[in-house]
Amino acid sequence: MQLWKGRFQKALSKTTNDFNSSISFDSRMYKEDIEGSIAHSAMLGKCGIISQSEADAIGQGLKDILADIENGTLTIDPEAEDIHTFIEGELTARLGDTGKRLHTARSRNDQVAVDIKLYLKKQVDEVSSLVKGLAEVICNKAYENAETVMPGYTHLQRAQPITFGHHLLAYAEMLLRDLSRLDDCKKRMDVMPLGSGALACTTYPIDRMYTASLLDFADVTHNSLDGVSDRDFCIEFASALSIIMVHLSRFSEEIILWCSHEFKFIELDDAFSTGSSIMPQKKNPDIAELVRGKSGRVFGDLTTLLTVMKGIALAYNKDMQEDKEAIFDAVDTVKMCLTAFTPMLDTMTVLPQNMRKAAAGGFINATDCADYLVKKGLPFRDAYKATGELVAKCLELDLTLETLPLEEYKKICDIFDEGVYTAIGLEKCAYERSPIGGPNPDNVRREVERVRAMCNVQKPK
Ligand code: ARG
What we know:
By secondary structure, the protein is mainly alpha-helical. It has helices at residues 14-20, 23-26, 30-46, 52-70, 83-95, 97-100, 108-144, 164-189, 208-214, 224-229, 232-258, 286-309, 323-346, 352-360, 366-375, 380-397, 406-412, 419-423, 426-431, 441-455, and strands spanning 149-154, 157-163, 191-192, 219-220, 266-267, 349-350. The chain folds into three domains: 5-104, Fumarase/aspartase (N-terminal domain) (Fumarase C, Chain B, domain 1, Orthogonal Bundle), CATH 1.10.275.10; 117-197 and 223-357, Fumarase C, Chain A, domain 2 (Up-down Bundle); 361-446, Fumarase/aspartase (C-terminal domain) (Ribonucleotide Reductase Protein R1, domain 1, Orthogonal Bundle). Helices cover 62% and strands 5% of the residues. A two-stranded antiparallel sheet has the order 1-2. Arginine (ARG) binds next to helix 7.
């Protein structure tokens, strides 16, 4: 049933109806549509635009519809044009003429805009709490591994010694920024468009601030054209979600590398890995790979939203119906990824000996060897050159800086003495990097406390 059929002589063709309909994806906003309508009718009653008894009847009718949808006695009609039409139609079927008064001083254009904001505000909170859940697991693992030495990498080549806890906390920092982006995006979402009408507000004496207070919005939109046609909040949310996926995909990539035989820094729990149908030896990190792959979907959703919105003349145009599938898919995907990723990380086994072994190869203490010479008075550039020659010598003799005899050191630079072996000890090299932001174990433990406080999570009992 179309609510706008007054001027039309013919029914909509089936293909047009199917093409035009958004019920298959906007029915998930039934609760927000009803919430919005309850507030709108209460405001109409308060302002004397409809009678108080009509407002009460509409409010009760809408509550009954909500209860019936939730207890399964009312099924949302898949043939309806959209969720707004369906609910208003159902209300009218139940209340007759009174139901028909609900849409006074309102358009589906401001209605849909308010519904999406109400829905997405809740989703921002849900995504934030999943992000905090992941940060919590990162903190626990980082605390346990505050002293676990591993090689830090640049160009995927072993570079300098760090602690595994410090490496993990890099992701906690990304998540803290994600949380602040979500928070910020919610602030701009928290502005009620209802009352903008189709595009030009209304001549009825509505009280928008009252409706906003009922719906718990911080403010109302201040331009009706913008109110109905703004979808920045979808784009911003999709951007924040895309950046979360960038972070998850980088973390996934490292998990994939770390559990390969080439690294063997971690082992994933059986419950979070899969086998191969043909190769019996395989244990595949499918969750991490899927998360990495699903980042593409979310970036696609962001691109969809940007492309749909670009070049649309003011105010509402039907193009904008395309916003919902994109933003809903982005939200669903990110929630699913976080839900799968967090327990996978929580149950992984860390293999510190393998990390330590990898740290002992690859000359990752070469910088510290040069620094040792600098502390003995050599200019850094000379120290750098001498250490480079030492590395070449080690390669030639198939030795490491730890196993190279002191006489070889002395041949290259006679300042060296026994103290060099202490200076290039891997634990020392990792632990003594202690300025704020460094891999030192006390730093790691302090940063864990900071992240926990910012995410409002407790340390495990
Ligand atoms: N289903 C529509 C949407 O999602 C609702 C708004 C319809 N407004 C209109 N003028 N046709 O955007």
